[in-house]
Design a protein that fits this description.
- The protein is built from 15 helices and 40 strands.
- It has 745 residues and is α+β, with helices and mostly antiparallel strands.
- Among the domains are: 57 residues, no CATH class; 134 residues, no CATH class; 208 residues, no CATH class.
- The strands form 4 sheets. The chain has a 33-stranded mixed beta sheet that branches.
- The protein is elongated and about 125 Å long.
- The protein starts with 6 loop residues before the first strand and ends in a 48-residue tail after the last helix.
Length: 745
């Protein structure tokens, strides 16, 4: 009898007995196994094990068999899906997608999900993915048909690679909520932080009657972009991908057009050529270059050209607030690497100034971050005006004169353009900006070096340094927009600077002047403009004059010592230096009003004293400066020189009421007594008390000033602006109130 090789003779009690190499002999009980015939037995089919597998360890045999079973199972699943096209998975897919996205997902028509043969094919008709309840559009994504091929192996490892995408009638609605805290493309937990928009990589596409809408209520940006019909056949795109759009930005319309040319080269390892032209908000933007793939930005090699009336309007598209600028024109290389847009090799101009450097824009944690390193060789002071709040249009039309406004019949020079505090809270920035030279008429400024940091509404310019007439100004300025009212802190230091160089453009020649000045400004104010901040500020301003010389002409004109001035004029000693022992010009600022605290300059022959102050609120000046002689002088005005007017239009009045009063008194004495008495009111006994220079050089307040004998000074005021007029009684018998300074106190 012939028995198949995969059969074994089985003991009905204990299993297989021996290989059936010779079944006939075995049945007869031949051989040495004489007991064989006595045991009950039967023939049975067992699992066939190849000889090569039979020689392997048992564990390996089990593993190989398990893999074989798994492969057979997968093949069975593949076969079932391929035959049925996976249509029976429509319901489970809707429920699974709805659960994962936490958005309602519906498919109204045909549905297919299967392997064809190795890539995953997904096909759906009338598909809808809902938007969050707060969104204006009910549906985030809709399409008449979606036909895609996904790379199976890459999908396993988390890569979203679409080998093919056929979209018909597809619309995507991208929206931000009113507070910019949620967006429609962040799925899952509605309270989770918003995520950046990430597009899948699409290697081939066929798109018809499709587009995208974008809404950002805070930026007031609304865009509607249509994608031109794109055809595909096998592995090639037959046409250029074109797109066009329109929308509004802050109620201003804009348009854009563009295309992806030569897309067929993508699959062969080539690159797509992108062109984009956008016009809006007075800006024109052109981008041209290549992309690795139709939706791949990583490794993009682009060139950008931008021009317009105001660069800040271009940054509005990013939700970024920068100071206004005059008309600009810039070019740069544009790349995208590691989720960072990089503008390198920037070259351009704004107004009459040049600009170069680099800029990087990223979005770590969904928050926009700017990192810039910019350089200007020559900065026109007019172009710097918008940085501190001056109106661009006025500067364009009027030059530096545009910085002055007439309000209520009074000139104003402090800028009042509001700071965009809300915008500062929405992005972060790190900026390094250097200016080699500033073109200014009044002050020689150069070597500006600004390091700026902005983090969640706190802006710090730390440090801001520059050279002023050879002296270094080092500043730390912080603007905190986090509180309800913006808080600004100023700390500005002036290192010793030569007066001759500093005042050279005001008629003071450097020859004969060796005096220097140093100073510090420390103030804190509140408000969303420079004017509001200063008008509410509190702090101190102090400038110290160490020992040095100053031209005689300036000193004598200031003190109006007629006799000494005429004498030196005839002796041709007009330029003989007058020695300054020490001096301080300081103001205490309270609620926007600065009071002299003190003004005290001790010279070789005089002590110069000042009273009064100024107001950041009204920008008015009301001060009086007088010089008391240390030596006897026969002809001396001994009356203060009034400094008044406004910041934008100061005036000096040497003919004070006191001087006119003395002249009247002298004339009266001359009439009733003798003509010689005419000069009596003009005699200066020369009893001015010299200053102790220690407190002066320390910039101390008026209360801390002393004479050389250590006695408190009684001629430097009390650090207030009120003028004493306590003596007269009013008509109703009450004492008159002290005179208000500038209508404030």
């Amino acid at each position: 009898m012939s028995v198949p090789a995969d059969y074994r003779l089985m003991d009905v009690r204990s299993g297989p007995l021996a290989p059936a190499a010779d079944p006939t002999a075995t049945e007869r009980g031949a051989g040495d196994d004489s007991h064989w015939s006595a045991r009950p037995k039967r023939w049975a089919r067992t699992a066939w094990t190849p000889a090569w597998l039979a020689k392997r360890p048992r564990a390996l045999r089990i593993a190989i068999r398990s893999v074989a079973i798994l492969m057979l199972t997968l093949f069975a699943i593949w076969l079932i899906l391929f035959v049925t096209k996976g249509r029976f998975l429509k319901g489970p897919f809707e429920r699974f997608a709805t659960s994962q996205l936490e958005r309602q997902v519906d498919i109204g028509g045909d549905f297919q999900l299967y392997f064809a043969p190795f890539n995953v094919k997904f096909y759906a008709e009338d598909i809808r993915i809902a938007n969050p309840a707060w969104a204006r559009e009910k549906q985030f994504f809709t399409a008449k048909t979606v036909d895609t091929r996904l790379s199976t192996f890459r999908l396993i490892f988390g890569d979203r690679i679409l080998r093919f995408a056929n979209l018909d009638g597809a619309r995507v609605a991208l929206e931000w909520d009113a507070g910019n805290k949620r967006n429609s493309w962040t799925f899952g937990d509605p309270d989770a932080p918003p995520e950046p928009l990430e597009l899948p990589v699409i290697q081939r596409a066929a798109i018809t009657d499709s587009g995208v809408t974008y809404r950002d209520p805070r930026l007031r940006l609304f865009a509607d972009i249509d994608i031109d019909t794109v055809k595909a056949s096998e592995s090639r795109l037959d046409e250029t991908i074109g797109f066009s759009g329109r929308g509004t930005m802050r109620a201003q319309p804009f348009t854009l057009t563009g295309s992806l040319a030569s897309p067929n080269e993508t699959l062969a390892g080539g690159k797509n050529k992108l062109t984009l032209h956008a016009v809006g908000l007075g800006n024109t933007l052109d981008v041209a270059g290549t992309l690795p793939g139709p939706t791949e930005l990583e490794g993009a090699d682009l060139k950008m050209q931008a021009r317009g009336a105001n660069l800040s309007r271009l940054f509005d598209f990013l939700g970024v607030a920068i100071p206004d600028t005059r008309r600009y024109r810039v070019t740069s290389a544009l790349t995208y690497e590691d989720e960072i847009w990089k503008l390198s090799g920037i070259k351009g101009v704004f107004g009459d100034s040049d600009l170069a450097g680099s800029l990087a824009v990223s979005q770590p944690g969904g928050r926009v971050h700017l990192k810039a390193d910019l350089v200007t060789r020559s900065l026109n002071i007019i172009d710097a005006g918008p940085f501190v709040g001056y109106e661009v249009d006025r500067l364009d039309k009027m030059g530096t004169g545009g910085a002055i406004k007439i309000v209520g019949g009074r000139p104003r020079v402090l800028p009042d353009s509001p700071l965009r505090a809300d915008a500062l809270k929405r992005f972060d920035a790190d900026l390094r900006y250097k200016v080699a030279r500033v073109r200014a008429e009044s002050f020689p400024v150069s070597n500006v070096d600004l390091t700026l940091s902005l983090k969640r509404g706190l802006m710090e310019m730390k440090p801001l340094t520059f050279l002023l007439a050879g002296g270094k100004v080092a500043s730390t300025i912080s603007i905190d927009s986090r509180p309800a009212v913006v808080r600004t802190a100023y700390d500005i230091r002036l290192s010793p600077t030569r007066l001759g160089t500093l005042l050279a453009r005001f008629g003071v020649e450097e020859s004969g002047t060796t005096g220097t000045v140093s100073g510090r400004i420390q103030m804190v104010g509140h408000g969303d403009s420079l004017r509001q901040s200063l008008a509410s500020s509190n702090g101190r301003i102090a400038f110290v004059l160490p020992q040095g010389s100053f031209w005689t002409r300036n000193i004598q004109l200031a003190e109006l010592d007629v006799g000494t001035f005429v004498q030196k004029l005839f002796e041709d000693k007009l330029k003989k230096p007058v020695q300054i022992n020490c001096g301080v010009i300081a103001f205490t600022v309270r609620n926007g009003v600065g009071a002299a605290d003190p003004i005290l300059i001790d010279t070789e022959k005089n002590v110069v004293l000042g009273r009064g102050g100024f107001s950041f609120r009204s920008e008015a000046i009301d001060m009086a400066v007088r010089a008391d002689g240390k030596k006897f002088s026969l002809f001396s005005g001994q009356s203060p020189v009034a400094v008044g007017g406004y910041f934008a239009a100061p005036r000096i009045d040497p003919i004070s009421d006191q001087l006119l009063g003395r002249a009247g008194a002298g004339l009266g004495l001359a009439i009733v007594a003798t003509p010689v008495a005419l000069i009596i009111p003009f005699v200066d006994p020369g009893d001015a008390k010299s200053a102790q220079c220690g407190p002066v050089l320390a910039g101390a307040t008026a209360a801390a000033q002393r004479t050389t004998k250590g006695k408190p000074r009684d001629d430097v005021g009390k650090g207030t602006t009120a003028k004493s007029e306590d003596g007269k009684q009013s008509a109703d018998g009450k004492k008159e109130q002290r005179k208000k300074f500038l209508g404030i106190f």
